[in-house]
Amino acid sequence: MNIVYSFTLAFFLVSCADDPYPGRTLIDPFDPATVDICEGYVDPLAETCSTECDLTQNHVADRDERLKLEEELEESLANIDEEDRQFKLDNFAAAKDICVPGVLTARPDEAVFINSDFCSCNNKKSEIINLGCEHKCAATIEGPTLFASVAVDQRISENPEMENLQGWCNNELTNDPANGVSPSCVFEVSDGVSTQDLNLATISGNSFTVNLNSLVKYRTYTGRLVEKGTNTTDPASSSIQIYRRDPQDGLTPFPGVLKLSPISQYTCITRVGAFDPQSRTSFYDNSARLHFYYNDREMPTVRPPDPNLFCHDIENLGYIDRPTYPRLELIPQAFSLWDTTDIRFSDVNQDSRMDINEIIETQIIRQFNTTPPTVDYFVPFQWPNAPQSEEESTVPTLGYMMRVFVDPKTGRGKCPTQEDYQGVDPSFIVLGQYVGVDTEALYIAFRQKINLVEEDGSTTEAPDDVLLIRQSLLEQIWWYQEGNLQVEPDEVTAGQRTLYFYYPPDPVHPYIKKSYQELYTVRDRSALSTGADAGETTGGLPSYDKRFGCVPANVSPEYESD
């Protein structure tokens, strides 16, 4: 990145949020006797705080530059007073963005985002399944053409040399090493086997069109804008998925398996006690774990400093959380769901059913000449990805889960595998064409109640902890009580007995409770206040073995059995 540093930084003092440093104001030079934490823009030396970053003289650091600046700041503060050093590092971490002297001359990457309302039109008809395209295409006369628009972030919109997509693609930039070579964008498409560059037919402001005549129908492509004219770093936009079809086909079955999305698990600690600011001593004797889950595409938001509830390693990293800090007791890919960005999970025809459920039915009719019952195979999986306050009511959709199949004769639940996909049931055969992988059950379990004892002897009940656990892990550690014995359940008793396990898991000695473990009870979906609808079965019948849903089979190496 080439940056011009001939300008000086212009910052203005702003009010800062309450913080573990009450009273100190971040100015240059600041008074060590007072402390406030900046939530606006901070300079690379963490000395000034501002509500705005003047992009005519400065630029906002991207993720890589911010990490590098943080390393340089830590090195530069090695020999100053420890309290002042930590104060500056905390301000740097808490700031919304880092405002760096010098106008950014490099064309930014990951700064252009293709809007989801794109359409492919051919002679006034829509070639793709996307909401609103039939109306948009009615006004067009071109051959197969992609009509799309983008959003750009402030690195482009507030840079007078670019301002929008057209400028990002076509404008030469001051002090750009590629000066003298005309910038230009292409639409890069790939079907997973080969890649081709399509020229833009038109580009104006934040809109563009592309002729799609070279893309084969009934094949899935991913496409993105790439600036390749200068032949430097090839900055690119976000990607979209394109599947051309004959307009008269309506809901045409899409080929290819559904996209998967890994879901990570992490821990937050809730505790009671006190912190003495005079002696800087903590008194916390009681705590409990709370488990949360997030889609890797959408990291959980960072919580404000709270000594009684935290989700990162405060012993080594301090009370102030940062987006770059790992979550506490993180387990990447604890399980997987189907990805929210797969366009087959949309409801284009607005009939209150996801298209993938109708696509599977359509394919069963075409392939087997039989009309299947109306079944919603997939449902949204909504689950909190971080601790929520009473005012917060929005629960994120982490992905999509398959509903459990239930044998109407036995009531036993089933999650399909390759054996089913290669069997004789048309529903499983077609489902296998879109799922492709074995599935396993996902269960929910509640931790035993924990009372946290306050300093005055009073007790506070810790919030419920609800754990999501895969069948392949649960079956290594679950048990039911038979008199004084702990017994491993089989297919029958799993649906007849109350099932327990100790967590974190120990598959080697699952029946012995260790000091770091808590007791969990497997429950059915009726125990939930959030996400209960996701646990319904395909036929509406109860699954007596408490399966919550079906997810892609996944054995975590951390807990694999021998």
Structural class: alpha+beta
Strand proportion, as a percent range, falls in: 25-35%
The tally of helices reads 10
Briefly note the CATH topology name of one domain: Immunoglobulin-like
Care to count the β-strands?
A: 30
> How confident is the prediction overall: mean pLDDT?
82
- Unreliable stretches (pLDDT < 50, length at least 5) are 1-35, 249-253, 555-562
The biggest beta sheet, please?
Answer: 9 strands, antiparallel
Highest-level CATH class of one domain = Mainly Beta
Q: Tell me the CATH architecture of one domain.
A: Sandwich
N→C terminal distance? 49 Å
What characteristic shape results from the CA principal axes? flat
Helix content: 10-25%
Features:
disordered C terminus; nine-stranded antiparallel β-sheet; Immunoglobulin-like; 10 helices; 562 residues; alpha+beta
